[in-house]
Amino acid sequence: MAVKPVRTMFAAVHGELAVHPWRDPAVASSDVYSLFVARSSAMGWLTPALENATGGFWGMNDAGQDLSSDPELRSRVAWFQVSLTAPAQDGGSLPIQPFLSSSKTS
Fold it and tell me: What pLDDT does residue 60 have?
């Protein structure tokens, strides 16, 4: 059995987080990870976390929101990391547009 190398994509959203006054506190319990998973799943981009699963572009690794006091990290609002499940190793293009589209924090 051949071992496939792990192919990872990482994106970070930088800026200043401005919480909208209309934000519903009931929704605030949804963290960045669950929001990213929900959007990726709804768009058909997330490969199910099942053995021999097919479909989607990536499997979820991690995501988070940085509210750090460290000056180096203060401008990083959120980050997302996935393991690619497609394209095939034969040189297909990376799913950059769907990945960055799913990474929207609005």
Answer: 92
> Residues 25-81: pLDDT tens digits?
556 667 888 888 998 999 999 998 888 888 889 999 999 886 666 666 567 888 899
- Nearest to residue 83, comparing CAs of 95, 66, 72? 95
CA distance 53 to 55: 7
Strand 8-14 and strand 76-84: the pairing is antiparallel
Select from 82, 83, 86 the least CA-distant residue to 63. Answer: 82
CB of 78 closer than 8 Å to CB of 63: yes
* Domain ranges, ordered by start, for the chain: 8-16+30-102
Residue appearing with tokens 């924090």: 105
pTM of the model: 0.71
Residue 63's DSSP bridge partners are 80
Encoded tokens for 21: 């006054």
Two structure tokens written together for 83: 């393991």
